[in-house]
Amino acid sequence: MTIETEEPVLTVDELAARAGVTVRTVRFYGTKGLLPPPVIGPRRVGHYGPAHLARLELIEELQRQGMTLAAIERYLRGLPPDLTAHDLAVHRAVVASWAPEAAETVGRAELHRRAGRELTDAEVDRLAAMDVLTPDGDSYRVDAGLLRLGVELLDVPLSQEVVLAAREVLLEHSRAAAQALSRLLRDAVAERAAEDVRSLSAHMHPLVVQALLTTFQRSLRQELRGWLTE
Asked: Which letter, b or e, does each residue of 135-165 get, where b requires 16 or more Cβ atoms within 10 Å of its Cβ?
């Protein structure tokens, strides 16, 4: 198991905080071989990079889906050894799509822990504007899957207006794609029994999400390549 060559910049404490887990959990995953070893720097201090964080987040997502450590180990063993942090994030997105939407009510301290950092009032307001969380008295209704994405967007050098506009574009086109695919699949299984349709739907869901992610990545890469070479 290898990691990408980006400079490892996180200590074990920082990695644990960013992932919303304990240092003990990080070390436990390391002893189980689920997480690559850190890069040892000066004074024998271990440092972790983006791929460590992305793999740790994938492991946590797999656990939320009810997978045992043995099953997670088999899953990770089946992945290419040179996946980047971006590739691992795509895998996590697909895994997260298997589960129904779920939101939890958490206090401010727990919100900070899950975000992996202390959030300012302005950042909380931005996350609320992106529908990542909803204030509920002194607590917050939070979608755990969206929270980490929202926190990452806080560091993107774009205005909130541009981020929200991009969100609307993605929602509009993803709904259109979902509706078109739904019609296509519904027509294809119209004559089948209800149980067969439910089974096919459950099987197709992660495959369709993976296909959408892959085609979108390729399309976006082509658009950016054209834009940057103009």
From this structure: eeeebbebbbbbbbebbebbeeeeeeeebee
Look at the block and give the residue holding tokens 């929200």. Answer: 164
Neighbours of 192 (CB within 10 A): 12
- Please report how the helices 50-64 and 23-31 are oriented relative to each other, as an axis angle in degrees rounded to 10: 90
CA atoms lying within 13 Å on the CB side of residue 30: 17
Which among 65, 76, 87 is positioned nearest to 36, based on CA atoms?
Answer: 76
Please give the Cα distance from 73 to 75 (Å, whole number): 5
Place of tokens 């996180």: 10
Give me 160's structure tokens.
């909130």
C-alpha to C-alpha distance for 115 and 78, rounded to whole angstroms: 29
At 162-220, the pLDDT tens digits run: 877 877 877 787 778 778 877 777 777 766 666 666 666 665 666 666 666 667 667 76
Q: In the Cβ-directed half-sphere of 189, how many Cα atoms lie within 13 Å?
A: 16
Q: What count of residues does the chain have?
A: 230
CA distance 36 to 88: 13
- DSSP three-state, residue 45: coil
Contact 102, 65 (CB under 8 A): no
Q: Whole-structure pTM over 0.90, yes or no?
A: no
Cβ-based neighbour number of residue 116 at 10 Å: 21
Task: Confirm if 113 and 23 have CB atoms less than 8 A apart.
Answer: no
Q: Are 10 and 53 in contact (CB under 8 A)?
A: yes
